[in-house]
Amino acid sequence: MNREELLQKYNLKGNPNKGLIMATFGFFIGFAAVSLYGPVATNFNKIMHMPGLMLGFLVAAPNLTGSLLRIPFGAWVDKAGGKKPFLTLFLLSIIGMAGLTTILYLYYPDNLTLKMYPLIFLFGLLSGSGIATFSVGVPQTSYWFPQNKQGFALGAYGGLGNTAPGIFGILLPFALVGLGLPGSYATWFVFLVVGTAIYAAFAQDAYYFQLLKKGVNQDEAKKVARELGQELFPSGTVVQALKISAKVPGTWGLVALYFTSFGGFLALTTWFPTYWIQYYGIGVRQAGLLMALGFSILASFIRVYGGHISDKFGGEKTAIASFMIVLVGSVILILSNSFGISLLGEIVMGVGMGVANAAVFKLVPKYVPNAPGGASGWVGGLGAFGGFVVPPILGVFVDSFGKTGYSKGFMVYTVLAVFSIVISMVLMNKYGKNAKIA
Questions:
Q1: At CA 93, angle to CA 388 and CA 27, rounded to 5?
Q2: Where are the domains of the chain?
Q3: Superkingdom of the source (predicted)?
Q4: Which portions of the chain are predicted below pLDDT 70?
Q5: Closest to 273 (Cα-Cα) out of 259, 288, 292
Q6: Measured between alpha carbons, how far apart are the two ends of the chain, in Å?
Q7: Which has the closest alpha carbon to 104: 66, 173, 47?
Q8: Class in CATH terms, 8-437
Q9: How many CA atoms lie within 13 A of 130 on its CB side?
Q10: At what angle are helices 163-202 and 150-161 packed, to 10 degrees?
Q11: Among the residues of 162-248, which ranges form H helices?
């Protein structure tokens, strides 16, 4: 029975390219929440008068749920496919955006005080749930594609989806002029609802999960899906997926690398607008453009090519080279008092982080082929936790050193880059060669 006959017999929908497109679209919709507070942090701060530490926690709030929820939701894909976890995370985000928009319409600007910080922080947490779609889309994409195309597919997924914070970082400050802060968030809320409806209408899980939902037993579902080109299959329940991946030593090395590359990316996407505004006195809209074009969007597009580089040279070698680039960028930013040189440092870090993000997730299905969803949950969740941890630390540097703390804070990235280079070398020497049989 040929491919078309199998698809018709079991009434299966979608194909790898459509699966990639919808997973990327869904990730784009949810991931925009990274820029929820960062580009407009100064607008909140002028009214609420927050110290550096509280400001750091606020801009990082979406990244807390956006990172920790990746663990169970990424593993859930191995049981239910990606569509249901995606829609659940979208629903949580919609609740958060509705609450935040309501607060702003009722209290902004005259009655918005520091006493309302916990509520604004809470709605930021809920809105950030969409960020966790990343670890859902990774296994969803992995199940659609064969092993030899994983690097390109995941690089395209992560790279194009990653453009959302940069694009929203550009749009949000401009929207403030015409719509005001409440109107800007109301528009974002509508965008989220419409995007969720589009994903619900057109997204499809990989063939294996479609067959299971139609009542086909697991053995037959695997047989049919294999004939249709699917190579990766889940090994058990959500808990089993997490346990299996947790027992692979390389999983924890990848967590450490992703803490620097993607957690660091999230942190700087929220922090760079504040850095440019406070350290160089640049306007809000210009700061948003610098963050987006010089870092966020740049890193996202380079991530697409980073997948190709990882396919060609191997994920471990690519990771080592990329973290060396991050190291150079962090040193430039620490030492620079010049706008042009600091911009160069931002660009260098964007290049390094973009390639590193692709390299790390090239290694996920390689190291843990039996439970890529579980591994994606650990790596994506705990790794992305850096997006919540790092901004408050950067805020402490500002509280401790004043204005110069904005540049000295990049010492954090120097340390993380060196640590990640060492970890990458350990993975290459001890685990890389045996990863497929782990």
A1: 75
A2: 8-437
A3: Bacteria
A4: 235-238, 373, 431-438
A5: 288
A6: 35
A7: 47
A8: mainly alpha
A9: 36
A10: 110
A11: 163-202, 207-213, 218-227, 238-246
